[in-house]
Write a structure and sequence with these properties.
8 strands, 3-stranded antiparallel β-sheet, 9 helices, alpha/beta, 46% helix, single chain, 216 residues
Length: 216
């Protein structure tokens, strides 16, 4: 099974991708995480992507396509994949459909006000652990701004600064939203409210997928 989880930044699609991955035994794939990995290790792609990510802009499609194609060669995706926030443009979608068949597209919808509140409290550690200082449902560090896992100081993601957030939401509105009509026409689009508790969103997704016959 190949799924797409789509929605604005801060909608919780990353959390739901992890839950679905555990439930379905299918790996989740986040292009954002792939790029952060490339940037951390200062690879050739990472060096190209770094200024785009820091500014909240989309990395050029040809670079994204190259990285995605390389990643999907891994045997871990032989049973399927859950795309977390990808594709973000029509061109990326066409590239993806040339690689594999998408079964369902899950849109997690949320208001702008709620997005800004969630993103303002999101912090990460270099070890990969993520936290949210303000969300009642997300994990918080035991000690303020210190990672529970490795003890290092937490930092805000480069793309979670106020300026970058506004830029990312603008890109989402202009480039990603037009994809909804395309997915709806193909009868693949499932819309779920992201302003519910995490477990309610997860149950709603499972119910929708079961209704579509993708879960037995």
């Amino acid at each position: 099974m190949n799924l797409i989880l789509i929605g604005p930044q801060g909608s919780g699609k990353g959390t739901q991708a992890k839950l679905l991955s555990q439930f379905l035994k299918i790996p989740a794939l986040s292009m954002g995480q792939l790029y952060r990995r490339e940037i951390l290790h200062q690879t050739a792609i990472g060096k190209i992507a770094a200024p785009y990510v820091a500014a909240g802009k989309l990395v050029p499609d040809e670079i994204t396509g190259k990285l995605l194609k390389k990643e999907l060669r891994s045997k871990r995706y032989k049973k399927g994949v859950i795309f977390d926030g990808f594709p973000r443009t029509y061109k990326q979608n066409m590239f993806l459909e040339d690689l594999l068949k998408i079964d369902s597209v899950i849109l997690i919808d949320i208001r702008r006000k709620a997005i800004l509140k969630r993103l303002s409290g999101r912090y990460i550690c270099d070890c990969g652990q993520t936290y949210n200082l303000y969300s009642q449902e997300s994990e918080k560090p035991k000690y303020y701004m210190i990672c529970d896992k490795c003890g290092h100081k937490l930092k805000q993601r480069q793309d979670d600064t106020p300026k970058a957030i506004r830029q990312r939401l603008k890109i989402y509105r202009e480039n990603t939203k037009p994809l909804f009509a395309y997915y709806k026409k193909q009868k693949k689009l499932i819309t779920i409210s992201g302003e519910q508790r995490i477990e309610k969103i997860f149950r709603a997704i499972l119910l929708a997928l079961k209704y579509k016959g993708t879960i037995s």
